[in-house]
Amino acid sequence: MSKKATSKTSTTDTKKTKQTPLMKQYNQIKAKHPDAILLFRVGDFYETFGEDAVRAAKILDITLTQRANGAASKIALAGFPHHSLDNYLPKLVRAGLRVAICDQLEDPKAAKGIVKRGVTELVTPGLVLGDNVLENKKNNYLASVYFYKNKKYEAVGAAFLDLSTGEFLAAEGEYSYIEQLLERFAPSEIIYSKSNKKEFETQVVRQGSNFSQFAIEEWIYTTNFAYEKLTKHFGTASLKGFGIESLHAATIAAGAVLYYLETTEHHEKNHIISLSRVEQDKYVWLDSFTTRNLELLVPMHANGCSLIEILDKTVTPMGARLLRKWVAFPLKDAKPIQNRLRNVATLVKKDALQGELRSYLKEVGDLERLISKVAVARINPKELVKLRDSLEAIPPIKDILFKSKMNELEAIGEKIVLNNEILQKLQNELEDNPPLNVQQGTTIKRGVNKELDELRDISSSAKDFLEKVRQREIIATGITSLKISFNRVFGYYIEVSNAHKTKVPAEWIRKQTLVNAERYITPELKEWEEKIVTAEDKISSIEYALYHNLVSEVAKYVRVIQQNAKYLSMLDALCGLAEVAMQNNYSEPEITDNNILEIREGKHPVIEKLLPIGEQYVPNDVIMNPESEQIFIITGPNMAGKSALLRQTALIVLMAQIGSFVSAKSAKIGVVDKVFTRVGASDNIAKGESTFMVEMSETASILNNLSDRSLVLMDEIGRGTSTYDGISIAWAIVEYLHSLPNAKPKTLFATHYHELNELKNDFDRIKNYNVSVKEVGGKIIFLRKLKEGGSEHSFGINVASLAGMPKEVVLRASEMMHHFETNKFAEKDKKTLQSAPKNTFYENQGSLFGSQTDPALEKIKDELLALDINRLSPVEALLKLNELKIRVGK
Ligand SMILES: Nc1ncnc2c1ncn2[C@@H]1O[C@H](COP(=O)(O)OP(=O)(O)OP(=O)(O)O)[C@@H](O)[C@H]1O
């Protein structure tokens, strides 16, 4: 549709008295929802007015016109037919808008004066139920965040609700933990207390995810209010059963979610049956940068590929959503990891059985979202048929699990409950191919209700009778083209084309003249019309009642069907992991209690799949033992494959801890509790921070959070500044990682600073490796093999040449390099390094800030701890670092 010119608009507030009654009603309702676009039902249309109309017209590409509003001025207007709501609503929500749907609350024919209207639903990006807004394979979370601070208690709480599935989660901790959850759950909307505006903006918004936000009155974010809301909803005396009884911030955040549901007219929430705590101790610590950098869930670039895309071979949307959560939250304890792996191994071994299971699981589809629609009474007949089909597929799945004679699978089979009673009811009562809307066809089977069957007989015999009348009149009048039809204005009528007009009997009553025909009614037709219309009205209302009755019968099974959905999605996720393991030739990792990492012939699971046909991924071994090989300094030319090696190591570890087989010939994984990755000079200009500053603050956060079981990947840390600064910082970081008193985090440090190879001479757990290349006739061949020892050259000029750099630049660069080399720059550098001051911080005292530190160091410690990195400019940071270096070096 084309857009007409916009006009000056007014949302009418001045001359209220002169408004039309309709606009007066509109303004009253709009005043209650100033933050939302109000879709105002007028007859068969949803209309928007004023500023709303201007926005809606733009987003929906619909015509913007004007409407007279009495003497109160004209007002902009844009609308669409009510039956197109499903097309237009998703566009508004996807544009991040809140949309209040205002319906007519009474039959306009029965209304005295202006039709009563009210908002029946407020759709916000986080509260969506429609399939055309939701993504199948992703949860759609609403998050609530609360920064709690008083003299006795300080914590950040968060709650996450997926209204479309009923999943409700809560967590509490420091913001660094909540930030991780926000990254991994990726909510589409976050609500927060108005009292937290500053914290929200400086912390949450700064993180920069793509969500819409809404501030709520602060009295909602209070302990008593939230506690009561939650206990009332769950019908419990306390919150102990949910594990959040003493977590005030989490409780408050969760309570606000329930409040928000009510204010947005989501009163049906029977499917939210529990609140689960997301326990920090259970999952691997992955800060948001690491989650993004390892591309676990979302690729970094538009045409990239994430780990979940490679691993997801599930056949149901609910299975896909669960697997996504597994990938987002790798486990930390060996036992549950081993359980998942055992299941996957069984399904790999029994691949025929796995195939059979998957074929039934396909039929199950999205049981989780279907049953939620039942709970909120918004399921249409076609979806109810899908639910019936889902339930039909469950008994064979249970059978297969039991017949497998494998303990793990039988255990899942035991958890699955058959719902024969309700299934039978659906089979008996629901038509196989019902319409989308109950009142638009036959939904309820014959034999369910006697009165309904009788009325249907009357209706169809009446229709037969009309056919007989038609035949009779054709013979009586000789009008061969005579038709009997129906319209809403004058009911059943006889249509006669102009050619036969003269043959029309006198007693027929003419009702309408068309270009080519005329329409007549007769008393006999009227009489039958009465019978048919009455019967059809009754049929429609009986069917409506029976259908809703059926839905509420199914609603009694929400809890058990939700449980089934849970175990079936688990089964689907496990089958999917087995499938991907077989397809990609992955192997089962061995999860160990020790701290050793032993990957044989490991491959990067994503790059491996994306290589051009004919190219083979070169596998590599990575064997790390914190007692002897704790830190790898990995050098090698540009493009050699250093970053790929770092990432594949972390990905293989995480795949294992997700419960997946791994892209390696074999792997022994001593479970890790934290994975950190940092990439030098990652570009963060969008956030207004210098790249180097970001690099340093991210590195600082790693160094402050290390544990003995951490896996650290540092990719060219230090490259964001001048060479000497860079080398010095990189050098100091490696020393620090080697010298922590209570932790020996396994570290892969990729660098172009070959100078760092000297470190191994002084530190026994540092090893040098390089990703090898071969130089043949001035050209480099990438061998991609990890070999012991440092490399001398970067071959940067060769890579520049490969990249199509102008010949002049390549030749001049080679000339300059030759000059530097013949002047023995490198030699000199080496000597300088050998005579570098030895680090005495770690000697005798275990830690830079250990118990025997001198007062000067204590002072520096205090200064560092008081330093707010976020407030420092890059230059200030460098100056401070320099100052500290000088003071410490004295
Ligand atoms: N083991 C491998 N087998 C096959 N191809 C590989 C392998 N490792 C890396 N590659 C390919 O080489 C490309 C460059 O690898 P990578 O980015 O890891 O190099 P790098 O050494 O980190 O380079 P730079 O120092 O320039 O950042 C990758 O995108 C990938 O396509």
TrEMBL record:
PANTHER family found in the cross-reference section: DNA MISMATCH REPAIR PROTEIN MSH1, MITOCHONDRIAL, DNA MISMATCH REPAIR PROTEIN MUTS FAMILY MEMBER
One Pfam family in the UniProt entry: MutS_IV
Highest taxon of source: Bacteria
NCBIfam families: mutS1, PRK05399.1
Region (Disordered): 1-20
One GO CC term, this protein: cytosol
UniProt source species: Bernardetia litoralis (strain ATCC 23117 / DSM 6794 / NBRC 15988 / NCIMB 1366 / Fx l1 / Sio-4) (Flexibacter litoralis)
One term of GO molecular function: ATP-dependent DNA damage sensor activity
PROSITE patterns with a match to the protein in the record: DNA_MISMATCH_REPAIR_2 (PS00486)
Domain DNA mismatch repair proteins mutS family: 710-726
Binding site for ATP: 636-643
Gene: mutS
HAMAP family: MutS
Protein name per its UniProtKB record: DNA mismatch repair protein MutS
SMART domains with a match to the protein in the record: MUTSac, MUTSd
Family annotation (InterPro entries): DNA_mismatch_repair_MutS (IPR005748), DNA_mismatch_repair_MutS-lik_N (IPR007695), DNA_mismatch_repair_MutS/MSH (IPR017261), DNA_mismatch_repair_MutS_C (IPR000432), DNA_mismatch_repair_MutS_clamp (IPR007861), DNA_mismatch_repair_MutS_core (IPR007696), DNA_mismatch_repair_MutS_N (IPR016151), DNA_mismatch_repair_MutS_sf (IPR036187)
Keywords for this protein: ATP-binding, DNA damage, DNA repair, DNA-binding, Nucleotide-binding
Recorded family membership: Belongs to the DNA mismatch repair MutS family.
Function of the molecule: This protein is involved in the repair of mismatches in DNA. It is possible that it carries out the mismatch recognition step. This protein has a weak ATPase activity.
BP terms from Gene Ontology: mismatch repair
